[in-house]
Amino acid sequence: MAGLKPYSLAPELLAAIEREFAPGESTVKYTDMYFVTVSTVLIGKNYQQIESKNWRTLVLTNRNIRFIQFATKGLINKQVLPEIVWNFSLPIHEIQGLGISQSEKIGMFGRPIQLRMTWTGGSETYFSIFDNANEFVKACEAAFQGKVTVEQAKMVGDAVSRLASLLDDGLLTQEEFERAKKGFVGEPASKGDEAVGLLRQLFSLMKAGVLSQGEFNMKKWDILSQRKP
Q1: pLDDT at position 1, please?
Q2: Which domains does the chain have, with CATH numbers?
């Protein structure tokens, strides 16, 4: 792939892309990639499947991955014009999965790099033979991992916040709080909310005299022991 330069390196094309940006959005990396569509056509008396490469400029910004299609002129020697006819913006925080590999198919320039992305309601697989594609997909992977790290940190913060409310209201001792953090952190929010709700119900029953302190503690420890160790 060495020496192959994407057409979007042209300054007028980059300028056209950046005019589409939202305030505060900036370019991180970009490259040109293609996705494959298969159509069935009648050739003579037989139907044959024909693969077509559909080129897009992919731009990673500090907020989104943008999929850009430029207008072209000419049939044989196509000229790419600084006019955007299609622009799909995928926020990084909406990406659910991202995979990078080398394509199994070998072309005249070797094995293209393959980038597969999934998000709510869609997925796409793109390929590229350009020399800046590796840098682009690595930057996308880093952005996705950063998004996952942020989500994990938020989950930890939410779990600790839920436990802290129990500590503040007297449902947990400091020792129980410290032990329980290890079990709640990393659990789905729905499970944590369910446990907190059950503990509050039991606490209300104890306050109403339906449960003794000992009965409340036993049920509380039973709920907390169901969290992962």
Answers
A1: 42
A2: 7-144 (2.30.29.30), 169-225 (no CATH)
